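Troubleshooting: if your tokenizer reports a length mismatch, compare your output against this known-good record of 102 residues.
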Amino acid sequence: MSLSENEEKALKLSEEMHGLLEKWLGKDGPECNAAIQRVGAIKKEINSFGFWVDWLASMKLQPNPDDNKFEVTVTVSRPRPDLTPQEKEIYDIWFKQMNGMK
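Known-good structure output:
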């Protein structure tokens, strides 16, 4: 099954988001701040295509703190094509809020 143009963009953006989060999560400084701002911009862009995006970070603590590293999962979801009218209404409200529409 081939991906639509927006699905391909969302996939590439989610990969960028994953890389930024793995590299910068838990760090500090101007470069980190810029990276985390980019993560927020990526999230908004993916949302603008009508997809949900979520991420989860976990860490297995190591005896040597320098070995600790976040493992990040980024999930992009799209709405089911068979939404009920009530679900579609909820989705439309969410989509408008995420994209600054009234």
